[in-house]
Amino acid sequence: xxxxxxxxxxxxxxxxxxxxxxxxxxxxxxxxxxxxxxxxxxxxxxxxxxxxxxxxxxxxxxxxxxxxxxxxxxxxxxxxxxxxxxxxxxxxxxxxxxxxxxxxxxxxxxxxxxxxxxxxxxxxxxxxxxxxxxxxxxxxxxxxxxxxxxxxxxxxxxxxxxxxxxxxxxxxxxxxxxxxxxxxxxxxxxxxxxxxxxxxxxxxxxxxxxxxxxxxxxxxxxxxxxxxxxxxxxxxxxxxxxxxxxxxxxxxxxxxxxxxx
Length: 261
Ligand code: ZN
Ligand code: MN
Prior knowledge:
By secondary structure, this protein is α/β, with parallel strands linked by helices.
């Protein structure tokens, strides 16, 4: 039995006394969504990655009885081959050290309070290795090694999109996750979850970006499509978004139940 009011999923909505009771009731899981403030073309808001990771986390938390921490609203620097680049207006980013330290502090604090399982749910491509590093340092700080009951899971939500969903949404035109920036996945999920924040009449239609195999710094701005999208959202729909959300939440929840009990 949870001492929390039915339907509670956000850690920020819980009072400290009920939180103590909840933590005393068994090994508990807190999900930390990680996003970004990043340009997403003319048809999606800057907060897209943060909003999507937060909403997916809340849906999963409702399925598995976890709580969701406040979302990391800024992320690591957008890169030209995966997010258009950090030179673009609206993109407001953290240095790697800042994101590593943020992750280390938040994960370490949750573990210190008695949260046994922390899940970092990433929604911004460039964050991943720095979240990983922050988790590794938080575990090292607390001397948590293999065999300990306490653990941290780390994932990017698009890795849960199944082959069936890919075929249903893209046909045979899937451009790859690195260039899914402002494209069909994010636009469809936003149309389903937050339709008032999508401006489809402004959506670009162009072939996927074909960046070189190397990174060049400083970037050559012309290599980012002028839309800011690395692939076009053509073919997006709220129905595709619903299908993607339901499938990802179902499979991710099943994985967390199997892994964390
Ligand atoms: Zn994005
Ligand atoms: Mn991103």
